[in-house]
Amino acid sequence: MPRWDPRAEERLRAAALELFVEHGYENATVAQITERAGLTRRTFSRYFTDKRDVLFAGSEQLPGIVADAVRRADPALPPFQALLAAVVDTGGLFADLVPHAAQRRAIIASSPELQERERTKLAAVTEALTGALRERGATASTAKLLAQVGVAIFQTAFERWIDQPERTDIAALVHEAATELATSLAPVAGLATPPEQP
């Protein structure tokens, strides 16, 4: 075997996911992961800080990536349209995750520790999007609302991508989720405006 294996990271990730599914996240160890992958602890440490990082490696870069996509969107677009364009623009980055995404989802759902990490990741993305939308002229409260909605739309689109991997067009899935939301909110337009508070 060569000293450097270009597939080492993928082998480690695949071994970890298998063990997490078989024995539970809490019961699997880094030693078991490296043994199953046929690699060393040193190699594991080259790619991941701990076993949790197998599921979240690279996620610290996500807030900056999506915020930059909002900034790059056509300046003529209003904030929410710029947000949707950014979601579509960055969605393709997750294509490599789809094969393991269903396993990852089940593993995270089984562990309160991992669920908290996932919430922390999404909160960081929401905060970054809020800042980028404010740069495009949205007020603080509107930017936060739109960022939260944008993250929810992306989550919905990605979940559908996981469940229907044959649907490879993330743009269509994002558009579908956004359209469903808009349709559901249409009756809100008929509500009476509440009286202003004195």
From TrEMBL:
Positions of the DNA-binding region: 29-48
Ranges for domain HTH tetR-type: 6-66
Stored Gene3D superfamilies: Tetracycline Repressor, domain 2
Alphabetized UniProt keyword annotations: DNA-binding, Transcription, Transcription regulation
InterPro entries: DNA-bd_HTH_TetR-type_CS, Homeodomain-like_sf, HTH-type_TetR-like_transc_reg, HTH_TetR, MftR_C
GO molecular function annotations of the record: DNA-binding transcription factor activity; transcription cis-regulatory region binding
UniProt superkingdom: Bacteria
Coiled coil: none
UniProt name for this protein: Transcriptional regulator, TetR family
Protein source organism: Goodfellowiella coeruleoviolacea
